[in-house]
Write a structure and sequence with these properties.
Length: 335
């Protein structure tokens, strides 16, 4: 098994398939930065599906069992279901998930299911249309995303996880409604503490609503009790409704960091490896890949990157006197 300098094994690979997105969430790709003239990566710079699949195969040989397709918005990449099918064909992969804003799911859910995708996570920050539009840069109403979730359900994905980023003064007053709506439908909402990823979203600690506050708000209306993790290193802390009607998760990356159990490597759309969501630089794999490197050579490079890994940004964040400059942006490497 491949382990890093803090003895963490490599188990998960998050694959960003595009740096583009049809939304402009203020906490991720603010519209004033990612405007009409923003230069996204040209197509030739993106890894092809064949290149991604070849790398994924090498990762699986090194111990990866879970893959997640993300972005940017993965469904804006043409024929994404073909990638899902190629990844599903890799022997040893236990789980292939996809994180999406849901807008294009009505067109894509069925094809993704048929391709062999195991699970979908849909991001939806509020059921209040005005609040949601403010958060996604005016690109979508709530209805479109709910239609996407319905389409995923009809295609046979169940349960579906719903990601909601919580920001103080923005959507915290709507989280109980969100919890209640999906409780009735048997889906699992995972409330995410607003993180200081990248350096363009103007993050401030006082905009973070802590996991404890989130749980207290929901518990006051629908009593909750903590549940043990499904597996060691699960990112979300789980709580179930005392009345037996399902569960929620809270991802407390700011107030209760979980770096000790972080087994994730990230592959960017242009083929760089990142060992942490808060990394400043990646390691390019595309160049050797396109220069004809053998699988053994690629494996050696990946071993080197993971072997040198000592990232634990969330655990040391509070000790940093200055915010880390020039961190990679989240849309670049996925969630
Ligand atoms: N576009 C897809 C989506 O929104 O689901 C996939 C990529 S998006 C970067 C992955 C996840 O990261 C989403 O659930 C999003 O809400 C979350 N995210 C983005 N910026 C964040 C931030 N600053 N703090 C916490 N979560 C964030
Ligand atoms: Fe796009 Fe997802 Fe980032 Fe929102 S969170 S801007 S949907 S990549
Ligand atoms: Fe993993 Fe980095 Fe997040 Fe810690 S801060 S959990 S090492 S991605």
């Amino acid at each position: 098994m491949l382990i890093d300098r803090l003895r963490r094994p490599l188990r998960d690979l998050r694959i960003s398939v595009t740096d583009r997105c049809n939304f402009r969430c203020t906490y991720c790709m603010p519209a004033d930065v990612y405007g009409a003239h923003y230069q996204f990566l040209p197509k030739r710079e993106l890894l092809t599906f064949e290149e991604i699949t070849r790398l994924a195969r090498v990762f699986v040989r090194l111990g990866v069992v879970k893959l997640r397709i993300t972005g940017g918005e993965p469904l804006v990449r043409a024929e994404i279901e073909k990638l899902a099918a190629q990844l599903a064909g890799i022997e040893g992969v236990e789980d292939i998930a996809l994180t999406t804003n849901g807008y294009l799911l009505p067109q894509k859910a069925q094809a993704l299911k048929e391709a062999g995708l195991s699970r979908v996570t849909v991001s939806l920050d509020s059921l209040d249309d005005a609040v949601f539009r403010r958060m996604n840069g005016g690109r979508s109403g709530v209805r479109e995303v709910l239609d996407g979730i319905d389409a995923a359900e009809r295609a046979g994905f169940s349960p579906i996880k719903i990601n909601a980023v919580v920001q103080r003064g923005v959507n915290e007053h709507t989280i109980v409604d969100l919890a209640r709506y999906f409780k009735a439908r048997g889906h699992i909402v995972r409330f995410i503490e607003y993180m200081d990823v990248g350096s363009l979203n103007g993050w401030k600690l006082d905009a973070v609503v802590s996991a404890d506050e989130i749980v207290a708000m929901i518990d006051a209306e629908m009593p909750l009790e903590p549940v043990a993790p499904n597996y060691p290193g699960e990112v979300a802390n789980r709580y179930r409704y005392a009345d037996g009607g399902g569960e929620i998760g809270v991802i407390a990356s700011v107030t209760r960091p979980f770096c000790g159990a972080c087994t994730r490597m990230r592959l960017s759309a242009e083929g760089s490896l990142y060992t942490c969501l808060f990394a400043v630089a990646g390691v390019d794999l595309k160049k050797p890949l396109r220069a004809g490197a053998s699988d053994a050579e690629l494996e050696r490079r990946i071993r080197g990157v993971w072997g040198r890994r000592a990232d634990r940004y969330s655990e040391v964040r509070s000790a940093l006197t200055e915010p880390r400059p020039h961190k990679v942006e989240m849309y670049h490497i996925g969630g």
